Amino acid sequence: MAISTNFWIWIAALLTLAIYSFLYKDNPFYKFAEYLLVGISIGYGISIYWHNTIITKVYNPLVYDKNFLVLIPLLLGLLMFSRFFKNVSYLSRIPIAFVVGAGTGLSVPSSFEFLFKQIYATMPLKLDIGSLIIVVGVISTLVYFFFSLEHKGFVGKVSKVGITFIMVAFGAAFGYTIMARVSLFIGRIQFLLSDWLGIIK
Asked: Which residues cross the membrane (predicted)?
């Protein structure tokens, strides 16, 4: 039997209120909603990993395609569980070393590509106020993080300009984060007042 939409609206509204009850103090309603969120997220994540990894990349290639090379990454993955057994826990170093090595090898080219893009973006293609601000901001910020020279005299003045650019960047990032959180809060309030209580349309 299908459950009505109103039932799920009530569930969502009560869980929303349970989460916001933490604004008063820590309480059992908040803990219940928190544990429910964590449990559902982990359960959903495990089901996704099971289907996308075990079934799609291990079971299907072995059973239907007869691709026995899949046994190599499967063995490496199973060796990760040796961490739970003290006598053979050293075996987990093999897949960890493989993951770290492969990850490092794959990230180095992309890191250089990102670096070159940043250098290209910093170079002014035309002389205007925007390009000048970018160049001054990059150079002064790099000088601030250059600790081999004492920040006195000209170097100290340039590093202070770098601090200003860093604070502007941090302030913009913080403001963007607050704006996103406020937007989420407004969305939940609209849900409670519109979908749940029907006060606003």
From this structure: 6-23, 35-55, 67-85, 90-109, 129-149, 161-186
